[in-house]
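Lab notebook page, bench 4
Experiment: in silico fold of construct C2
Operator: M.H.
Input chain length: 218 residues
Purpose: comparison with the prior construct
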Amino acid sequence: MTTLRARFEALEAERERDWPPERLRANRAQRQVLVDRFDPAAVVREGQRVESFVLDTPAGPVTLEELTSGGDLLLIFFRFAGCPACNVALPYYDETLAGPLAAQGVRIVAVTPHLQEEGADAIRNRHQLSYTVATDRGNALARRFGLAFLPQEPATPPVAGGEWIGSLTGTGTGELPQPALVLIGEDHVVQFVDVSPDWLRRTEASSILPRIRAAAVS
């Protein structure tokens, strides 16, 4: 099984072949700005207790209490359903994490500000993901966890497909969450956090699986 990093390197190589140089430079510059701005002290921490929240799913609203009623919860924050890197990462997590986590009684939910009514679940259907894709309306949970960011300059170009990201998320802005994995225990205490300010450098399964296995035997 290829690593997530290798899959992203293949995506980047494809862009180097197909994109104009100025577009490639702009994409890399935007990612570097997010890396430079990132403050680890500003994000949710391991050992922190999470207060109740609500996410929207295709089946309706769901609370933290409901999501953790049968065990621990892994939240996979991603940008939006049309994000090319997210369409690489989410199937990877399904392939590498879904089986082992299910065996440990850990539920997976992917979280995005992309509204359900604007097609948030499209990425799940596209890749036949085994886990739920939920909407964090207005980036409320991402903001609480210190994951939300705005581009350095006002974001006005449409996303792929010609739709404005502010309409897809309902925020009217370019605000998105930084990709992150957050493992929350059944007791609502954060057990693992890994944030990826560069959206082409995300958490490998090998980084979180040992932590989940350790938590299961502790």
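Observations: Helices lie at 4-18, 21-37, 64-67, 86-103, 122-127, 140-144, 165-169, 205-217. Residues 86-103 form the longest helix (18 residues).
Next step: discuss at group meeting.
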